[in-house]
From TrEMBL:
The keyword Phosphoprotein does not apply. This is Kinetochore protein SPC25. InterPro entries: Spc25, Spc25_C. It comes from the Eukaryota. It is found in: Nucleus; Chromosome, Centromere, Kinetochore.
Length: 258
């Protein structure tokens, strides 16, 4: 403990003698100064709090605007892709229509030049029409069969999904994962956390394609060897054990982060 400083001589000893008892002291003649340290400290604390709040709101606003920009950009790219596809379809239809018009004009010219061939051409077209009609009927039957098979498969998947909900929740809790959308109806984003002991919030993920019965992996973070991914896909597509697949993919991602 520090001992407070005590001067050897008192202030009265060091003070020069006064000319008279009625003369005012030098301390009485000094102006009174009040610095207001407590008010200044309170104002500085209030300003700091307001400034921190302003910075926090600004960061949140920038993050929201950036996310909205990315969403708008993705929508714009999708819209451009769809418009490009529509233009290509219209261009193809235009070419097909022009070719059909040229063909019809050639046929009309041929019919005017060779009247005798009209009957033979009509018979040939009749045969072609009958053949096409038969092919159309066969194609329609094939399409109907495929649609029925797809509907049956969809009903099976829906029933299986209802059964798999408790199992999925179990794996989500066990493996510290969550499932998000990947921007397309036939893709899912599987996100893992609690991978690194020093940073439990650090994430790793992979993008899973579900468009067909055979699962596909399109993107991962961190990037994984394609051979290792294909090995796991072959396994899950063969045994259909999705929970074990999620567990093995977590191990791959943990290894990729090292």
């Amino acid at each position: 403990m520090t001992t407070p400083y005590e001067p050897a001589l008192s202030a009265s000893t060091l003070r020069p003698p006064l000319a008279s008892a009625d003369a005012p002291s030098m301390a009485d003649q000094l102006p009174s100064i009040q610095f207001g340290f407590e008010d200044l400290r309170a104002q500085m604390a209030q300003f700091t709090a307001k400034f921190d709040s302003f910075i926090e709101r600004g960061q949140k606003l920038v993050l929201e605007e950036r996310n909205q920009f990315r969403l708008n950009l993705a929508e714009l790219h999708e819209d451009q892709r769809m418009r490009k596809r529509d233009i290509e379809i219209l261009h193809l239809k235009s070419q097909t229509h022009a070719q059909a018009l040229e063909k019809e004009a050639a046929e009309a010219e041929e019919m005017r030049a060779v009247i005798g061939d009209v009957e033979a051409q009509r018979n040939a077209r009749q045969q072609t029409r009958d053949k096409l009609k038969k092919q159309i009927e066969e194609t329609q039957n094939m399409i109907q069969q495929k649609l029925e098979a797809q509907e049956a498969h969809a009903r099976h998947l829906e029933a299986q999904a209802r059964l798999n909900v408790p199992e999925l929740e179990f794996w989500q809790e066990l493996l510290c994962l969550r499932i998000e959308g990947a921007g397309r109806e036939d893709r899912l984003k599987i996100v893992y956390t609690h991978l690194v002991e020093k940073d439990w919030e650090k994430e790793a993920w992979f993008e899973l394609g579900t468009a067909s019965r055979e699962y596909e992996v399109f993107h991962t973070r961190p990037k994984l060897p394609r051979a290792a991914i294909e090995k796991e896909l072959n396994t899950v597509n063969e045994d259909r054990d999705f929970g074990a697949f999620l567990k093995r993919m977590r191990k791959l991602l943990v290894a990729g982060m090292k």
